[in-house]
């Protein structure tokens, strides 16, 4: 336990992905609202989760952020999850709340705010972590970190892919019964140390995300945990 975060260090990326897949499946079987992350790291966890449980009909899916591209674009976070998880299920989620990246960052954020209108809190928020300690599309020292009224905002990208983004805001990510980080690789070790063992700071947005209604956990591979 570091700074209120329960940390599990797995042998390697596959072992880390399997632990996260098992947690996703537990939640899918229990039902409720799950927030998926984008990026490349969670793809294997989504594939393993689909293998473990083909029936996700009790759960609703949301995204923490999206790139402002059409859903069939290779940079789409929804597109990745559709290929790695949704298309492999026998019974899909009762609701798939996709961020409409194709609308652009501002109209897309307004549209997702509308989708979130009835939701009070998430049951499980899965987050990746950038080498710069960004989470979702909340980048270091950006005004998006100060947003307290809106639940979703448009954002600029400060890392590849350099396309506009739609992202949940900090208060929305915190409104969760569990936050779970999945982080792999040596290139993330400094960010992991800052985010999981450092003081909360806008310079490391991940350090500002802790679940308000339950535990905050992190599944790391050995390389990502090497600076802890
Ligand atoms: C995105 C993500 C972002 C991601 C990190 C890590 O849209 O890019 O949601 O927050 O989790 O950038 O990305 P990788 O897993 O590809 O390293």
- Termini Cα gap: 11 Å
Largest sheet: 7 strands, parallel
What fraction of the residues are assigned to beta strands by DSSP? Answer: 15-25%
Taking pLDDT < 50 over at least 5 consecutive residues as the criterion, the unreliable ranges are: none
Q: Which H/E pattern describes the elements?
A: EHEHEEHEHEEEHEHE
Mean pLDDT: 97
How many helices? The count is 6
Overall geometry comes to globular
Structural class: alpha/beta
Name the strands of the widest sheet in spatial order. Answer: 1-10-9-6-2-3-5
Structure description:
This protein is of the alpha/beta class and 228 residues long. Helix content is 27%, strand content 19%. It contains 6 helices and 10 strands; from the N terminus they run E-H-E-H-E-E-H-E-H-E-E-E-H-E-H-E. The strands form 2 sheets. Strands 1-10-9-6-2-3-5 form a 7-stranded parallel beta sheet, with helices on one face. Helix 6 links the parallel strand 9 and strand 10. The longest helix has 18 residues, at 13-30. The termini are close together.
Supply the key terms:
single chain; 228 residues; alpha/beta; 3-stranded antiparallel beta sheet; 19% strand; globular; binds 6-phosphogluconic acid
Spell out the blueprint of helices and strands.
Blueprint: E1 5-10, H1 13-30, E2 32-36, H2 43-52, E3 59-63, E4 65-67, H3 77-84, E5 95-96, H4 105-115, E6 124-127, E7 152-155, E8 165-168, H5 170-174, E9 179-183, H6 189-197, E10 216-221
Parallel strand pairs: 1-10, 2-3, 2-6, 3-5, 6-9, 9-10
Antiparallel strand pairs: 4-8, 7-8
Helix pairs in contact: 1-2
Bound molecules: 6-phosphogluconic acid.
């Amino acid at each position: 336990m570091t700074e209120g975060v329960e940390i599990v260090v797995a042998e390697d990326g596959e072992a880390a992905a399997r632990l996260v897949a098992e947690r996703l499946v537990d939640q899918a079987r229990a039902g409720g609202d799950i927030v998926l992350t984008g990026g490349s790291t969670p793809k294997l966890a989504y594939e393993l989760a689909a293998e473990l449980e083909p029936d996700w009909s009790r759960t609703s899916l949301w995204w923490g952020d999206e790139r402002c591209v059409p859903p069939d674009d290779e940079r789409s976070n929804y597109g990745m999850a559709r290929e790695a998880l949704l298309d492999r299920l026998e019974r899909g989620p009762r609701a798939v709340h996709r961020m409409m990246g194709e609308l652009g960052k501002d109209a897309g954020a307004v549209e997702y705010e509308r989708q979130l209108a009835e939701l009070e809190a998430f049951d499980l928020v899965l987050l990746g972590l950038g080498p710069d300690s960004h989470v979702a599309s909340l980048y270091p020292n950006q005004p998006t970190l100060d947003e307290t009224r809106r639940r979703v905002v448009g954002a600029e990208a400060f890392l590849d892919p350099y396309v506009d983004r739609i992202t949940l805001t900090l208060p929305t990510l915190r409104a969760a019964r569990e936050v779970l980080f999945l982080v792999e690789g040596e290139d993330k070790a400094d960010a992991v140390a800052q985010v999981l063992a450092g003081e909360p700071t806008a310079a490391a947005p991940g350090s500002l995300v802790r679940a308000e209604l339950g535990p905050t956990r992190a599944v790391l591979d050995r390389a990502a945990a090497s600076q802890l």
